[in-house]
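ok so for the tutorial part 2 we go from a plain amino acid sequence to predicted structure tokens. step 1 is just haveing the sequence, like this:
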Amino acid sequence: MTILNIVSTASRTGMQSAWMAWEGLFDQITKIRSVSVTQYGICKLVVRKHQGKSIACHDGYYINAGDYVGELHLDNQKVLELSRTKGADRTALMTARMLRKSLEQISYAMEHNLEFRKVKALTGITLLHRGIIHGLGFNQHPIQSKCLRIWLTIYLRFLLRVLHPVGKQRVKQSSSKLVPMMLMMSRQTLLHRYQKEVQS
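step 2 — the prediction. this is what the tokens look like for a chain of 200 residues:
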């Protein structure tokens, strides 16, 4: 390994550590501003009220302003640990499998925990909607607000550059495809899809 590579690796590790420290602070703020924050495997489930326009799920259910939703947030610390030990391709596969397992756990909690009875849908925002969520049951919606879309694009691309092993190259080569999308899955679809998987 050359001196340049050593310096680059040290710089990247430093940026990752700084980012995770920021996320720790953000998690504390999120807990204060949300109804609840719960960990399920590789996902954090943040329950809060939906704001903005009504959104249609693909099964015909609508999520309206004021309805409770569960926001899904990947645990970036766990993803970072995987990327450092498993490599980019294996990390993507393992993350997708762990995400499916988290959805099974969340489905069970939605059905059995009283605190989640009012949650009408799962939502999330991601750049990786073309790969990581394939076959999981979400439908996609563009971010309606132009200002929010621009901010999320900058934020999520930077996150990808910092945490993903080949994030810098990926942003350069596929920037036109790395557009943030909102993911949505109704409570009914979640229970129907993942309770069947748990029982099978």
